[in-house]
Amino acid sequence: LILGGGIAGLTTALSLTKFAPSSSPPPNITIYEIRPEPATIGGAVNLTPNALRLLSHLGALDEIRAKNYGAECLAVEVFDVYTNKKIAESSFRGPDGKGLGSPPFTALRITRGDALKGVLAAIQKHANIELVCGKKTVAISETPKDVTLRFEDGHHVAGDILIGCDGIHSVTRLSHVEPARTAQYSGICNAFGFAQRRRNHEGEFAPTHFSASGMNFGRRGMLLTSFFDAARETVYVGALMQVPEIASRDGWKAAGADADATRKDMLERYTGAANPLIEEWIRDAEGLFLWPVFTLSKGGKWATDRVMLLGDSAHAMALLKLERAEHI
Question: I want to staple 212 with a disulfide (CB 3.0 to 4.6 A). Which of 73, 131, 148, 314 is the partner?
Fold first, then answer.
């Protein structure tokens, strides 16, 4: 059994299938997702060589490339927002320009939704994996022989093991593995949206200061600007910003949905940008959303005899590595 139908849960199912002993049939795996359907929404991430190598091994990268999802990223460039000067880069070109590692890969900038679609397409080719949506887990019980999930709709299911891939607010952790280890607000929010590039009177786009992905550092935060598909007609705009804590979950939802307030905050934080496209993209960004970043204390309990936590449910990333993790 796997709780969580996001990237972590799906790739875990593929990995368990891929690495099953050849002497026996692949395990029967059922993934339970709380949402009524897989959440193919969200921001954009950078799938770097290690990630692409794993996705290739699992058969998901072929699905992503078949749909022409994402934009190749040879390097993440770093800029001073007030001078627009490039001050550093993290390159994925490798010594011969073909990529890093063996086999070599560069990187792929892609929306979370398109990445998930590619992994879902790979899942559908394995008869031993089933994805069940719309299931809210309300209780988990464990015996020396099995693990049982009980759902809000009254149904229950048992399996040999349970892997909790259900994120920072993991039900697997909070209701079974370590209930006292709750997520804490980090003081940082990620505000993101997508800006359609403007054309000049000749129908051409103004050149961007970055090739595929640019991190623009200012005094009050970092603004990420990047392409995420082959067309390169739209720019992903994402800002990491310090934001005071909001006490309730409903309050966070209201703040997150207030695109006008988020846009105003971003414009104020990055005022004085030397490149006029920075302001233009913030003003033009559609679907702006403010997402609070939560973290977990170090250490903690990751497993019982038959239940294991994986990903954010076990070890949310350190704040200093938050944006960097988008590129690892």
Answer: 73
pTM: 0.91
Give the pLDDT confidence of 180-239 residue by residue, as tens digits.
999 999 999 999 999 999 999 999 999 999 999 999 999 998 999 999 999 999 999 999
Check: CB of residue 327 under 8 Å from CB of residue 107: yes
Same domain, 249 and 309: no
CATH number of the domain that residue 115 is part of:
3.50.50.60
**Which residue is associated with the tokens 């000749």?**
202
Cα–Cα distances (Å) from 14 to 18, 115, 192, 198, in that order, read: 6, 14, 30, 41
Look up the domain containing 60 and give its range.
Answer: 2-74+111-182+297-327
Q: Peptide bond before 103: cis, by omega within 30 degrees of 0?
A: yes
134 falls within a domain: yes
